[in-house]
Design brief:
mainly beta; 41-stranded antiparallel beta sheet; rod-shaped
Length: 652
Amino acid sequence: MVRSVRILRIGLPIVFLAFIGVIALSFTENRRQGQAVTQPITSEIRKGDTPQLVAYAFEDVQTLGGRVVSRIRARRTMGFSSGWYTLEDVALTIFRPNGQSYELTAPQAEFRVETKEAQATGGVKITSSDGITIETATINFDGNRLVNNVPVAFSADAWSGRAGGVDLNIATERMILLEGVEAVMKPAGNDPAVTIRSAGADFDRMASEATFRDDVVLERQGDTLETASITARFDQEKNVLSGLEGCCGVEFALTGVSAGSETGPTVIRGERFFTEIGNGGEFRAIFIERGESPAMATMQGPPLRVLTAGSFRALLAGRGLTQLEATGSARLEERGAVRRVLSGFSMIAYFDAAGQRPSSAVVNGNLEYRDADARATAQKGTFDFVGDRIVLNSSQGALPSIQTDAQTVTAQTIEMRSKTGVVTAEGFVKAKLVNREGKPSVDAGALFPSSSTPVYVNSEKLTLHQQTGEGVFTGKVRAWQEKNILIADALRIEESGETVVASGNVRAVLYNAREGQTTAPITAVASTLSAKRNERRAVLEGSVRIEDQGRILTSDNAIFRFDTSQKLDRVEAEGNVKMAERALNREASGSKLVYRVTQKVINLEGSPAVVSEPRGTVKGEEIVLDLARNHVEVLKGSGRTEAVYRPESTPE
């Protein structure tokens, strides 16, 4: 190939000069003229010049080293006193060493021997046997190059279009297009055509590539890509696209089938780009990479979404964008009424086929979500833009978590609906609940004594309403604050944490010691438990069983009442009340019982109330048990009578 190019570079100018010499000789010999020149010679090509010689039906073949390198044909040739020669209806064929050929046809051509100028005019057409066609008004030829600076129409391999001028080097098989280039390429199959506009283009046919320079704009089915330069590469046959790449200041606007829609295009910006091309030359994807700043994709809404990353891969299917893959510190910011940020190592945004709007996203690696009220982390997750739902998933033992102003929740799966403020967590749910004054919060402060110490809850599932501060834990619920514990099948927290309702196999363990005191816990079992912070009480219903230091109390219902410091102050029980003290082997029964915990005094009412032990039984409408003094007092009716039962010995 190198030897062939060298031969063309040396031989074509020689052939060109020989061609002019042959024309000059033909005028003197008139060897191809069918008749004698006896009539006046006139020319419309060079009206101000004096014609001297003429030849008709001119044809000449030039060889170099025994190989045909050119063939020239013209209907008429003419020489002028100025040294110019003209040809009419001329056809010039140049044969290349590789077997290909170029052919130039024009209504007229002019040559000047002294300056070696050559020009074809009047509507020139240049064709090559391997896929180049150029049509223009006029062109200059020096034996190697065909050059002009007037509008041309061209086709080269898979490209066709127009430009403001051309510089075609036959020896090096290089075509340079000048000023206002517009090139159209139609890929194989049903892929839409690609149009590139630029200030200039360079078709290097030996390298099977074309480079477009300066203010380049690529259009494809309404999508546009703007950059400083684009290089298109083809297969060896030069007709199937194998890749596009470009630099710098890339801006890719994808309108697709939604062109003209009020939502606006998705725009991707970066420093460099390249493409993924199918076997038939169809576009599969465009990669856009960062420069000094991260690459950026702007997805019009509402709401407006801005995605930044190290690089993007935009997957194209036929006439639309199907998904946008972001890698390298991907960060999605949603700039709507609710401002949200979603970030991770990589992110894939999926687009709907009809409107070309983002429908969902998948995030992998170090996921973080933020809005005005919450922060969530996970290893992976999905974001449903249409349904306004984010789902966080566990990976390799790392559980996702969400933190608000007052709560922290971890679980195997966490689902958030930001606009409605609903959070659902499932699988190994762990919650940390803290009271925040003046703000809605989900905690169990209505039951547990400290308003500043966190309450922890484990369950199988949690549904949390952030806007109202309500939540429901279900499945093996276990809540605790310090040593105080609540166990149930379900735990519902209402009214911004003011009310707590536990249901199903409820069991509560409360330590009621004041500062500096030690005491055994009070244990309660019931079907349901409800507590209100403002009322400082907890209501137990259904098969209630309360145990305090070996003292067992059962009833249909009971109420725990707390003092201002949220310490248990009094227990009230009603309905089938029974009490047993194992240490004294004492039993009591009645319809109502009030236990003042700090005073260690029990008031028992009934019709009658009964207290019995191995040494005797006491009955009355109301019986008072002073547990500290082991003293029993019976009250009857409106008058006051007293009966005292004193055992022989008092257990220590």
